[in-house]
Amino acid sequence: MLNDFYDETEPIVKTEMFYGEKKHLIDKCLITFSIEIFNYLLTHFECEQIALIKACNGDVPIYCLEYKSERIAFYLSAVGSACASTFCGEVNWLTGATKFVMFGSCGSLDLEKTKGHFIIPTESYRGEGCSYYYAPAADYIEIKTADRLAEIFTEIGMPFVKGRNWTTDAMMRETIGLVTRRKEEGCISVEMELAGVQALCDFHGFTLYDFLEAGDVLSESGYETEGLHDANHSLNKLFIALEVALRI
Questions:
Q1: How far apart are CA 238 and CA 104, in angstroms?
Q2: Domain segments of the chain: what residues?
Q3: Are the CB atoms for 231 and 214 separated by under 8 Å?
Q4: pLDDT at 144
Q5: Are the C-beta atoms of 150 and 160 separated by less than 8 Å?
Q6: Measured by CB atoms within 10 angstroms of the end CB, which terminus of the chain is less buried, N or C?
Q7: Fold exhibited by the domain 25-247
């Protein structure tokens, strides 16, 4: 049966088979997708490597920094729902982190609403595969911390808009028909990780706070990429994420 992936029986492959006993080093962790933001953290903060995600195509270090007397972990995530979700689960095992602040770029589906604002997703369309292994099949998954994150953005004076998001596994298959359909359902943004990472966090009892910055713009009439680099690498998101981490 299509999407009949969710199963509550015991997993055969377990994280401890690769990493041994679970560690309890830290509580909060930033998930970034920008190499420029990642390198900025390494060069502008005193950072300590606390763990290592191991893979045959290259290991991924997990670091810790101190921000306003709070210890916060961070790492450079892979792009895409399946990889980002896997990394998040392994980081929990390796560090003990249960509160994750994830931030990155997205495509805007409604420029009028998103221009000049950060985006706080309230739900995400499950147009990927990973979430179906961690939650029963449904079109959308709720982003449970959206209201609290909106409160934090208000506290720190950052402009934001709340709305539905679309998570896709296939950027090159964001067709005219699918863009139209998602917009009709109220989606204002599209990206490639949120639904899967949220499903994994729900399954394991982690807390995920996610916000986005629109760079490219998708519409039935075309595709604009003028703001993509800034949305990917702007340092504004980093310092917002650090302030969010202090408040969760």
A1: 9
A2: 25-247
A3: yes
A4: 97
A5: yes
A6: N
A7: Rossmann fold (3.40.50)
Chain position carrying tokens 């249960």: 98
> What six digits make up the tokens of 114?
């998103």
Q: Give dist(CA 2, CA 4) in Å, integer.
A: 5
pLDDT at 218: 79
CB 100 within 8 Å of CB 209: yes
Q: Which regions in the chain score pLDDT beneath 70?
A: 1-3
Beta bridge partners of 67: 70
Instruction: Express each pLDDT in 125-169 by its tens digit.
Output: 999 999 999 999 999 999 999 999 999 999 999 999 999 999 999
H or E, element range at 90:
helix 81-95
Alpha helices in 157-223 (DSSP H): 176-184, 194-204
Reading the block at residue 216, the tokens are 């490219």
The pLDDT assigned to 2 comes to 64
User: Helices H, strands E: what count in the chain?
Assistant: 10, 11
Cα-to-chain-centroid distance, residue 212:
9
